[in-house]
Amino acid sequence: MTAAAPLGEFVARAQAGGALVVQPRMGFSDPATMRAGLAATKAAAATTVGTITLDSYTRVGDDEAVARALRERTPLNGYPIVALPRSTSQAVLDGLRDATFPVQVRHGSATPDRIFAALIELGLDATEGGPVSYCLPYSRTPLREAVASWRRSCRLLAATAGRGAAPHLESFGGCMLGQLCPPGLLVAITLLEALFFVQHGLRSISLSYAQQQNPEQDRQALAALRRLAGELLPGVEWHIVLYAYMGVYPRTQGGAMRLLGAAAELAVGAGAARLIVKTAAEAHRIPTIADNVEALELAAGRAARAARRDDRGPGDEPDDEVYLEARALVEAVAGLDPDVGRALLTAFGRGLLDVPFCLHPDNAGRTRSYVDDRGWLRWSDTGAMPIPAARPGRPTGRLTAAGLLAALSGVQRRYDEGAR
Amino acid sequence: MNITQSPAGPSILVTGTSSDSHTWNLVYLQLLLEEAGCRVTNLGACVPPVLVAAECLARDPDLVVVSSVNGHGGADGLRLIEVLRAQPDLAGTPVVIGGKLATDGLRNVGLVRRLRAAGYDAVFDNGDLARFRTLISRLSARVAS
């Protein structure tokens, strides 16, 4: 078997060569379909990384539900990597994962010990998540338990370094509940998770950010992320991964494709090295393999054209709002405790980090945000966070159910307008 | 965010299902119900059935609203209602479920029937909001009278 490409090195090489790496969110419970999905991703006319997304029962550790679904042949919403025999998963990967095609496991688990053990057993070395970003939005697991589990899991993954593996871990922190979270907090959380990963031995990291409603604010956020990563992660191999818009997706094929194209151009213009795509089927159903290939190829094509138009790359960034906000948050949290995990626990406990509209019991829930008329995400209440309250003249009314829907569906509305 | 006070209206427990990590649906329902004058306790995402049962026993809500959009809502919803209805004190508690309940995105008549048979008082597949609002206004009128 050809040696597999370490994900971090693969992406760095592609970026140096001017190619944006594109990656789907694909995951199927049937091993043959999962293999077909990986094969199609590899064969797509694009520089791709393969994805194995796990099902949500595996994510929450509900073995009984996985076993029942496998027994009764009920389809799951992802690949049950912990329950399936190792030989089955090896057959899924065999001959596909190689020097030209890294594979990342995506899972969403707040306590991923067994998932990390399962992927390491398969010789896989790239995954993602984080103690905050996979706990607060997606579970009721106490943050303390998530931090302890991620500490163990990071060490387990880091310990594989040098034994034919080059472990890579991506922080999902820049995406959590992103549809209404102003980017300063998202940038701060992904950086703090990266510092947590580095503290537990990882040396190849990616930082994430999800495309929001206003391209200029997104560019500011990505510039702030690049600059702060440079300042905070010396000696660490890192890149930025952009997620195509994660909220309510356009219903029309044209609208969905324009939104994805805008994400590809944003990635290239703002120096992100990897893009997680969404498909035109997103608003209607779970995407097929063909939907995914179409999205990968469209994004890669748009990125290549954008790179030819503008090969200067991102320049020097001013001290804009997102940078200052993210730096203030990171500094306040990092100053609480030399142990990043403990610092995160204290920060959430005191509301120094406080994610708007997050229902998790360990989130203070005192912050509020809104989308302004230009599509910028703004604070209406910063709670106890060490950043200035929003500017004067902001709307002060309570967010209504209709207002929430309008904010969450703004992108869908704008991109569907005039699209066929 | 999680608990709101509005002394007069019906008390409603909003919850996601055990495997569902989505929360915008839950935030939306909370705001909608608050605007209709309800008192809302929102349990959030990935709530195990035993916790829903414990919260129901502790709070004695006028209505339990289960919402799921991850495609496992049918299976998770069946497991949840079995646990709730197994508690004698919750045998009569009104419980409804809604959202995107199956992975194929189609209205699944058989699934709706099974959920009703298992003990849900109403099933709102594919987010039938008009019917849900009607239910809430009837409930508010009943609690207020």
TrEMBL record, chain A:
TM ranges: none
GO BP terms, alphabetized: anaerobic L-glutamate catabolic process
Highest taxon of the lineage: Bacteria
Keywords: Cobalamin, Cobalt, Isomerase
Entry GO MF terms: cobalamin binding; methylaspartate mutase activity
InterPro entries on file: Cbl-dep_enz_cat (IPR016176), Glu_mut_E (IPR006396)
SUPFAM superfamilies in the cross-refs: Cobalamin (vitamin B12)-dependent enzymes
Record keyword Isomerase present: yes
Protein known as: Methylaspartate mutase
Native source organism of the sequence: Actinoplanes nipponensis
TrEMBL record, chain B:
Species the sequence originates in: Actinoplanes nipponensis
Gene3D superfamilies according to UniProt: Cobalamin-binding domain
InterPro entries according to UniProt: Cobalamin-bd (IPR006158), Cobalamin-bd_sf (IPR036724)
PROSITE patterns: B12_BINDING (PS51332)
Any one GO molecular-function label of the UniProt entry: cobalamin binding
All copies of domain B12-binding, residue ranges: 9-145
Pfam families to which the protein is assigned, alphabetical: B12-binding (PF02310)
Record-given protein name: Methylaspartate mutase
